[in-house]
Amino acid sequence: MNVTLYKQMMKVNMKSFINYAFGSAFYILLMFWLYPSIANNAKAIDELVQSMPEGVSQAFSLNGFGSAEAFISGEYYGLILVLILSIVCVQLSTQLMARLVDHGSMAYLLSTPSTRGKVAFTQASVMATGLFLIMAVTTIAGLAGSAWFLRDHYPFDTTKFIQMNVTALLLFIAVGGISFLVSSLSNDEKKALRVSGLITFAFFSLDLMGKFSDKIVWMRKLSLFSLYQPSEIVNGTADFTLSILLLSVIGVVSFGLAIVLFRKRDLPL
User: Where exactly are the structural domains of the chain?
Assistant: First the structure.
């Protein structure tokens, strides 16, 4: 790793990391603040959810509101967090690699006593660090929110909450790795952004459509997002160990492949 480059890139991107992290923290604290008032009408709301078509409740992770983690999984982890971190992965991967190549800055970096492999590994480390910071702040905010707003009046399963956050982090390490791979192979910033965005949106869409009907549930098997199951974690039906193992492997392989291929590819002069 190039420590000097790592520090500089962290400095450049830290404001963005902080904005996303505190935006996520604010939203999850808002969810915990709202839950006590929701819990008072949980029975009526659960009946409303049950009256919806099964595909709709599955697609949007509407898991009922009998517990705080069920409410959080549906209202935040099922959609909002996914959208936030998808944007982070696509934008950040493009900024860290394809933009530097497109603008000629990569040639300057490689003119210093630093190999392509070190530069790519450093940029990958910046991305992984950013995702970790966002999820760490989100997790801490959630634990603080449960202690502050729920106290001992409402049930809250801390273990399931942490499992949701670990799975979310590893999902976006995997998504980020694939986006980083695309960016590492591209000379054009806009093209990298477009391709990474399309791949991420395709994964999300396949998972979403597959939840609507048993007839097309096979679509979920084509998507990384099928390994991210916040509602199943709350219900206790998720295979947590398998999910984190597969996501970890996909993330490591994607980042590793990006570094190897970047070392071998031709760069524009």
Answer: 3-264
